[in-house]
Amino acid sequence: MKPPVSDCRFHLAFTVDDLAAARRFYADLLGCPVGRTSDRWIDFDFADHQITAHLVDAGSDAAPTNPVDGENVPARHFGLVLAWAEWEHLVERIRAAGHPFRIEPQVRFEGLVGEQATFFVDDPAGNSLEFKAFRRPEEIFRPRP
User: Fold this and answer.
1) Which residues pair with 103 in a beta bridge?
2) What is the CATH number of the domain that holds 84?
3) Is residue 13 part of a domain?
4) Which residues does the UniProt record annotate as the domain VOC (predicted)?
5) Between residues 26 and 5, which one has the greater pLDDT?
6) Helix (H, G, I), strand (E, B), or coil: what is residue 70?
């Protein structure tokens, strides 16, 4: 898959042990605008790319996850924000190949700011990738009221 560069953005999710410190670093120091947030994660606009800081609890031996719209999302993941049609095409390509989804394709935050189609797959080494598409691409960094 080689999506058009003009139609996609990079997405990277990483773990932090202090959300307030992450906000001070990325928003205040680096100047990244803050997008949607929860008590467990913060989206940042990183030069028009979406990065997400996920809070993880210290001392946990399990692969960290955070609840996002009813799913246990792997805190460490990366992926792309695609155009809606490209996302749908990729879903069908993965289904046709018989590759399992870690989190099945779905629409998240339906009817809200930031409504998006999303799914997760793992690569052969166990790295989680998220592919998403925004119903209204101009809302990728818009916080919810």
Assistant:
1) 120
2) 3.10.180.10
3) yes
4) 8-134
5) 26
6) coil
